[in-house]
DNA sequence: AATGAATGAGCCTTCATTCAT
DNA sequence: CATGAATGAAGGCTCATTCAT
């Protein structure tokens, strides 16, 4: 599945990229504040620094903006994560580092994550799969890391266990952003990371299929 | 914090209750399908079995409907859960039962849960706290159960650990509904419960504060 | 082919009729002045004596107004004609009377006729056939009148001749409205009628298929 | 009345002519399909083979395009007719030939005729007279032909009769195009020509002012 | 002379809410 | 209490036209 194309009337691809970045930046700010539905296209245009007419030279419908925003956030998250996955050695220690890094990225991008988490469901049947696929790819990155530990003999897990653990990690990262109204009152980021990681790794170690 | 009052023009309280139940039922069906924003008040009235004029005899704004819906879903979830918490003995086994029961309730009410978590964010600054408070109450029920195990000496956990575990359980239950597009393809409900519970309990046991 | 239904949100049929008549009256005035495309829905609403919101309680799209207008004009023209056709005896004299009457109706309704012929082409593929069918019905009324003369032995014409003559009459009537910018400078209505009728009847008489 | 000037920014007259021809060709195609109002200037530019910016180097407003199109169609029709009028001898036979030729031209150019007939009315008060004048010139060509027959003693008609007959011929030619949805189902072009010509000539002959 | 990105007035349509009956 | 017709602010989107390059 390739990236879904959002049609632009403007030909100059470099310009399209530039304008879309302005657009995404403006839109994210607004979506954070008021959500997708309560944000008007005019507001998006203004926040992006151009007129409503110009906005529509770069998209076809308001939903395109949402798609572009979600797509861009996923890309940003994944790009940031990538670097921590590469040097991964298939040891418990490297798994720990990966989680640590992931949680910190989620903390940094918590506004973006929140937007995506709350607004993605407003995407049409048409666009949603492209975004969900990206989500699965990220979960897959955690699976691979865990699986490598299994291959190395550091862990003893069934495939189903590997998958559920990857999901749990992924969701706990998001949790820090979308339940921040309570979690960030109870814990510092470091505390949260330590508590969750300890709990998880003890759980994993105790769950060997024996 | 008392329940937020939604003003009705109609005096007969029995009638108000009856009409609101019709309303909530109709609205949930619609919100499931198209979300809060895409549902019109006319549609809600029709689905509730009365006219738009009548609808507005029992609420003040469209958002009131959303509040009523969220509030009612929370009540339903909590009521269902309550029974499993009452006989709780403060043993690991009863914790296991509580989790098992909770996940099954989430499975049964997954549509409602979905609606609530996707749409609650559309509540105004005014109404949101009432809903969040209900959520915290539910998390609190898990905390109590765990805490009783600690008091009984079955577990050895700090207060912060107790709290994070309660949140994890709570979120993993939601996840089953929220991420059903992927989880329910990978696991049956029973598998999911078993995997998550094992992982969690192993984690808990391994995390004694020592 | 039944009349094409234009959906209204309002239930009270009597009211729908009343409002639509207001609407048609207002719209015709505007269409006369500026044509369909240059007239806005707000202008139509205002000219009809109600708000834009109310307008849309009685139609679905702007094009519905056009259809309603065209449909109503056809009905008016046909209703007016009907009376002159009924007592028709199948004589040349009664044919003369029918033509005379038709031209006079076209003169009276020339604004409406103009609107209809200039704007009908803006109807969608969907609505056009309903209007064209009405036109054919009117042409058919002339055909019947001529055919009766043939049956009576007053005229000797092939079916193809009957049809072309009916069309010619029909179009010459429209012409009086359509080309009024020139014809009405050259002739009075009575002159026009006499000239055209004489020419036509001589042509018919001379065209006997022998 | 001279030809209405449409201002161009470009000086090179040869180029102006060339570009305008491209433009007219493109526009006619589009107007045929969707009418003047539903066609955008961008579409016209694209269909003409140049950019929107270039389009506006050769016209001032969208309406200019319509004027140019109408003007050009009239010129084309008139140019084609011209040749059949020149050798006209003032006999009934040559009148017959002129009509025959005219109807055939109308058949060939029926798309263009339709466009003109349906869209000319969208011209502004300013431009319309120039187009109507051309129409009158064409009617005048028929008048001349008939008048010559009168002068030759072949026909005995008043001036008013001459004029109405010229109009009838003119309109019957257009009729073949603008009522093609019905006429071209009933008749071949040759049948149509024969029926109309016979009817008309019999009418003319029978209408001698005696 | 040609290009095409930018503009913003203005269009059609929706829908939450009111209020007379 | 119930009804549903009326309202108009507001929203998404288009497109004729301009102007810097």
Give a description of the structure.
The structure is a homotetramer of 210-residue chains. Chain A is mainly alpha-helical. Chain A has a domain at 62-206: Tetracycline Repressor, domain 2. Chain A has helices at 13-38, 41-48, 52-58, 62-85, 92-108, 110-119, 128-151, 159-178, 180-186, 189-206. In chain A, helix 1 (13-38) packs across helix 2. The longest helix of chain A has 26 residues, at 13-38. Chain A is elongated and about 60 Å long. The mean pLDDT of chain A is 93. At the C-D interface, helix 7, helix 8, helix 9 and helix 10 of C face helix 7, helix 8, helix 9 and helix 10 of D.
In short:
The structure is a homotetramer of 210-residue chains. Chain A is mainly α and 210 residues long.
> How would you describe the oligomerization state of the chains in this entry?
homotetramer
* Low-pLDDT sequence parts of chain A: none
Estimated helix fraction of chain A? over 70%
How many β-strand runs of chain A? 0
Average pLDDT over all residues of chain A? 93
Shape of chain A: elongated
Counting helices, strands and paired strands, the structural category of chain A is mainly alpha
What's the architecture of the domain at 62-206 in chain A in CATH terms? Orthogonal Bundle
The CATH class of the domain at 62-206 in chain A is Mainly Alpha
Largest binding interface between chains = A-B, 38 and 38 residues
Radius of gyration of chain A: 19 Å
Strand content of chain A: under 5%
N→C terminal distance of chain A = 39 Å
GO molecular function (chains A, B, C, D): DNA binding
Domain HTH tetR-type (chains A, B, C, D): 17-77
DNA-binding region (chains A, B, C, D): 40-59
Keywords (chains A, B, C, D): DNA-binding, Repressor
């Amino acid at each position: 599945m390739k990236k879904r194309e959002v049609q632009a009337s403007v030909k100059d691809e470099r310009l399209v990229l530039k304008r879309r970045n302005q657009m995404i930046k403006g839109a994210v700010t607004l979506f954070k504040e008021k959500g997708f539905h309560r944000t008007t296209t005019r507001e998006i245009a203004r926040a992006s620094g151009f007129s409503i007419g110009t906005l529509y030279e770069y998209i076809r419908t308001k939903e395109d903006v949402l798609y572009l925003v979600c797509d861009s956030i996923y890309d940003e998250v994944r790009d940031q994560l990538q670097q921590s996955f590469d040097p991964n050695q298939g040891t418990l220690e490297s798994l720990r580092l990966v989680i640590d890094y992931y949680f910190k990225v989620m903390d940094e991008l918590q506004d973006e994550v929140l937007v995506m988490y709350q607004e993605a469901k407003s995407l049409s049947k048409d666009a949603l799969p492209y975004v969900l696929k990206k989500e699965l790819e990220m979960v897959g990155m955690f699976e691979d890391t865990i699986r490598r530990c299994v291959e190395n003999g550091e862990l003893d897990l069934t495939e189903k266990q590997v998958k559920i653990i990857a999901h749990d990690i992924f969701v706990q990262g998001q949790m820090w952003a979308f339940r921040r109204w309570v979690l960030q009152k109870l814990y510092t980021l470091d505390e949260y990371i330590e508590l969750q990681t300890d709990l998880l790794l003890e759980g994993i170690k105790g769950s060997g299929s024996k």
